[in-house]
Design a protein that fits this description.
Protein Transport Mog1p, Chain A, 11-stranded antiparallel β-sheet, 3 domains, 7-stranded antiparallel β-sheet, 440 residues
Length: 440
């Protein structure tokens, strides 16, 4: 995780000073040690009224009597905006985080893209920021539950009378299904949905002001989300209508990290209030392949797999930290088609990613029923790009290798054709492709 302890120390701009004169008879080095201890523990201390009287009856700078022992305190001199900025950067680089709290809303929204089950729900979920993945379980006051998973712009959900019943409930795509025309182009950074958008709101907020500390003594900084939020985020334009101008209260823990976020929509916007505790920042185990596999598999109709000649979306040859993150269908009459010239039929576009990586670790596949000459769409090498033969189990074909560029090629087993782009090594790519399950 970026933002580890060493980065926190380097990035911190916090300084603490002690106001007031030292007690009589105390050595200067003891005062230095006392200040250092106060900086380390980050607490506000007051000296008791029984401390010895100051050694000087008047302050040499002001001519006024020095403060009494009761007035002696640690004064926080760090600028609120700087502390907020440091925390927001680390929040955005956390890779993953969990959350738990309450959401009040009048209906579904970009922040709550799953089923709306009540005006107020308790939520428990996790976010994978680099891949814009969220998992979320919402429970209403009656105990009814809804589970939502987002990956980029795609959303799946299921409902049950109680949280215990969710495991047996069927997943359904929200806002369309995989049989619709192309929704996302493979390889294009996904836009965010769900609580992942809170990170964008925190990072973009301005007018950062110190607020009273919370009941636990933690620092709270208030800020305002810009009216034109969409220009500063990974979200769509209608994000402005939802949280543009919203008020934030961001609580920092004793390490200066975001510990809690409260957001209230601006007047005139759809009602929305969230109050979420942020948990386990940077924990790589928060989002797993199992969180995504079931909803994505359930949303690909069996006839689509049959049509392209696959028996499963699983790729056992990939490392265990990889996951299927997207499945989209391209129609032959769609405006975008990855098919080689002269090939017909529908194409299933699949994306696999390494959940532990940030910008690397990807494999994009376009899979279709082999209905044309295998050389029809063959890629041609150049003096700078080497064309190599590919053997991956039952698949054979060719690929292009160029230093510093993704490895890409086309293979077929005579029934199923696969076009791939990946940053895996040729050996690892072949091992993964060889485990594609053939159709029955």
């Amino acid at each position: 995780m970026e933002g580890d302890d060493s980065q926190r120390g380097a990035a911190s701009t916090s300084r603490r000073v002690v106001s007031g004169a030292g007690g009589g008879g105390r050595s200067p080095w003891l005062a230095v040690v006392a200040v250092a201890v106060l900086v380390a523990v980050g607490v506000v201390l007051t000296r008791g009224d029984n401390d010895p009287a100051p050694s000087s009856p008047r302050d040499d700078r002001t001519g006024e009597p020095p403060p009494t022992g009761a007035e002696m305190e640690v004064v926080e001199t760090e600028d609120a905006s700087a502390a907020y900025a440091d925390a927001a950067v680390r929040f955005g680089r956390a890779h993953t985080f969990g959350y738990r709290g309450i959401v009040r809303s009048a209906g579904p929204s970009l922040l709550r893209p799953g089923p709306w089950i009540a005006a107020e729900v308790t939520v428990d979920g996790a976010v994978h920021l680099p891949l814009s993945i969220t998992t979320d379980v919402a429970v209403d006051p009656t105990g009814a539950a809804a589970e939502t998973v987002t990956s980029g712009a795609a959303t799946w959900a299921r409902r049950a009378p109680s949280p215990d019943g969710l495991a047996g409930a069927p997943w359904e795509p929200v806002g369309g299904d995989v049989s619709a025309d192309v929704r996302n182009l493979p390889g294009v950074p996904p836009s965010r949905l769900g609580i992942a958008l809170v990170v964008d709101a925190v990072g973009a907020a301005t007018d950062r002001q110190e607020a009273p500390r919370d009941a636990a003594g933690r620092r709270v900084i208030r800020a305002t989300v810009p009216d034109q939020m969409s220009s500063r985020s990974s979200g769509p334009e209608d994000l402005d209508d939802l949280i543009g101008g919203a008020e934030l209260a961001v609580t920092l823990d004793d390490r200066g990290d975001v510990a809690r976020v409260e957001l209230t929509a601006a007047p005139g916007h759809p009602p929305l209030e969230i109050a979420l505790d942020m948990l386990r920042l940077g924990d790589p185990a928060l989002v797993t392949a199992g969180d995504l596999a079931e909803p994505i598999r359930a949303s690909v109709p069996p006839d689509v797999l049959t049509d392209v000649g696959l028996g499963s979306l699983d790729m056992p040859g990939l490392p265990t930290t990889w996951a299927l993150t997207s499945a989209s269908l391209y129609r032959p009459d769609g405006r975008l088609s990855p098919l080689p010239t002269g090939c017909g039929g529908q194409v299933l576009a699949l994306e696999y990613h390494d959940l532990r990586a940030v910008a690397d670790g990807f494999l994009f596949l376009s899979v279709w029923r082999h209905t044309c000459d295998p050389d029809e769409g063959r890629r041609e090498g150049t003096a700078e790009v080497a064309e190599v033969a590919v053997e991956a189990g039952r698949f054979t074909g060719s690929a292009l290798r160029s230093p510093g560029q993704p490895y890409q090629g086309d293979v077929t087993d005579g029934t199923t054709a696969v076009s791939f782009t990946t940053d895996l090594s040729p050996e690892d790519a072949a091992a993964a492709l060889a485990t594609l399950v053939p159709g029955q």
